[in-house]
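User: Please write out a complete single-protein record containing the residue sequence and its fold in token form, without commentary.

AI:
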Amino acid sequence: MRFNQGVGRRDFVKTSLGLAIPAAMPGLISRPVGRDARSQRDGSARHRAPQNILILGGTGFIGPHMVRAAMANGHEVTLFNRGRTNPGLFPSVEKLVGDRGGDLAALRGRSWDVVIDNSGYVPAHVEASANLLKDRAEHYIFTATTDVYRDYDTPGMTEDYPLGVLPEGEPHDPRRWYGQLKVICERAVRTAFPDRNTVIRPTWIMGPGDNNHLWTYWVKRIHEGGRVLAPGRPEWPIQWVDGRDVADFVVQRAEARNGGTYHLVAPPMSMAEMLYGIRATTTADVDFEWVDDDFLWENGAKPWVDFPLWWPPRNDYAEPVFGGIRGGEGSALLDGTRAWANGLGFDPLANIAIDTFDWYQEAFDGVWPAEQRPGLTRVRERELLAKWEASGR
């Protein structure tokens, strides 16, 4: 499929995307009709009186989206961080410099309506900030993760599914026990702010600004064209959320302050829908080669590491994928009903793909940053495809 060079990419996508993506695969959760996500970003949605919001973090990936969404709705924002990541962002916003590992002095003696905690990974740090602010803020919003669960064996998991437990004696290392430590962090927030807390549990966050380059891997790889290794089966589900939709929802919760715990997930789609949907936004010639997941494991190609955002939806995967979890049939079929009913909206996949590619090209001049490059290298991809073809499977 080729673009008419006289037609903009967004116009092309609107008129032809339905021809480019296979029909939704059976068995997936049906998709609700989301709001127009852009309306909230433009500040046109109704909101309560201006809030004084403290964001712990605010200059990484989702933080800047939250700052923009809050300011667009007329709220006053203060940032607290170490001042090392993107220090030039938001020159008009008040910035407090400190360290969650021990230097919270800049927060003392100040008050805010709402605290948004995006940078809490170590329980001791979250407990310290929550206890310091419990009499200085009306509401605390904590960014957790869908990694908090014991397993992902059950499709349609709700926010009440059993949580993971940190093994006794293990150090508080978020690189090893990310989800289990977020469970303890959630508990610290609820203890300090009983009945005055909101916990969000996003799945994989993607879109422009993704400094982990997870979904960017797929967008960039498909734009390069050629034979693309696609993991597993076309009908297997995948699930994510756009960072801008996370920001819009969090600002809504800051305005409402009615608490709760929410899965921030877009309705699931199949891997084929995702990959073909991205392909519809590029003029490159692209062919997808679907490679069996057992073959990939046998040849040392791992989910999440070599194939960002992809977990095998099976409960008998050969080895743990991440944090001791062996994939799971429900890993990309999380129930987002609660958040959808409370205003979480979704941009179309094509818009996110276009915005992500444009951001990437502008931010990195098209040069893939080696130190942050997830997924397969082109050499490794060709090796695996050659082995796959030779195997005759």
